[in-house]
Design goal:
The chain is of the alpha/beta class and 245 residues long. The chain has 2 domains: 63 residues, no CATH class; 148 residues, 2-Layer Sandwich (Zincin-like). The protein is 36% helix and 27% strand. The protein contains 6 helices and 12 strands. A 5-stranded mixed beta sheet has the order 1-2-4-3-12. The protein has a 4-stranded mixed beta sheet with strand order 5-6-8-7, covered by helices on one side. A 3-stranded mixed beta sheet has the order 9-11-10, with helices on one face. The radius of gyration is 20 Å and the shape is globular.
């Protein structure tokens, strides 16, 4: 559907409300709508949010991004918000060690960029899993909300996601690059969805209760320089009393 010159993808699902997304890296627009929702009602909803859509698209265009990494000496690497300068050495085994502000990445001779990236991602995964294991129980105790399982996942459009019915949480592998408080905010955010499905006033109040400064953390998380493959989607919802036009 083309609305005000913007290509909008429509995904009809077994849901009650409409959700409007603007996704990185290029501001792609999509709407999740109830199965029987008419095109007229969907178009009306999008047009009511068109100023917001264009603002979000402009945000993605202007957001600073790093060039795709080649994993060679001189590039930067981040862990828990701290910047390290990459030094690549060669050996029989892959390894990554930190000292001061230097990150020494040992790779096999003739290794490809993809092989180096896969190793670094798994290095991030292990560190992230260690921190989640330490941090998640603290927030479960504080909120009284407990997930049945959690997983790490490489995601390009969300910092975290939650399957409410199965009480299962996924956390973005890229969180290992961000300050520790960002991970804590996302953990709290996803746990809160186990009680409040939508990003409404009750949801915000729950976050306010347990992390009064969460808005500052969210702004910090979404305002940092991104890798070429990073980003978080923007979303607007509409409560729908009934399906149809």
């Amino acid at each position: 559907m083309i609305i005000d010159g913007i290509d909008v993808r429509i995904d009809r699902k077994k849901i009650k409300n409409m959700h409007l997304y603007v996704k990185p890296p290029d501001g792609t627009v999509s709407v999740s709508a109830p199965m029987r929702m008419s095109n007229i009602a969907i178009e009306r909803f999008v047009r009511s949010k068109i100023t917001w859509v264009k603002k979000q698209q402009e945000h993605f265009v202007q957001q600073p991004r790093q060039a795709p990494r080649q994993y060679v000496s001189g590039e930067t690497l981040y862990l828990w918000g701290k910047q390290y300068f990459l030094q690549v050495d060669y050996g029989n085994r892959y390894s990554l060690t930190l000292s001061g502000n230097a990150a020494t990445l040992t790779v096999r001779p003739n290794s490809t960029t993809a092989q180096r990236e896969n190793f670094v991602r798994e290095w991030y995964r292990e560190l992230l899993k260690e921190e989640i294991t330490r941090t998640l129980p603290k927030w479960e105790t504080a909120t009284g909300l407990k997930c049945n399982s959690w997983h790490t996942k490489y995601m390009t459009s969300k910092w975290g996601t939650c399957n409410i019915s199965k009480r299962k949480i996924w956390l973005n592998l890229q969180l290992a690059q961000k300050p520790m408080e960002c991970l804590e905010y996302i953990i709290l955010h996803e746990l809160a969805h186990l009680k409040v499905r939508n990003h409404n006033a009750a949801f915000a109040a729950l976050l306010d209760k347990h992390m009064p400064f969460w808005r500052e953390v969210k702004k910090r998380l979404n305002g940092q320089t991104l890798d070429s493959w990073e980003g978080t989607e923007s979303r607007e919802d509409e409560q729908v009393g009934q399906t149809g036009a």
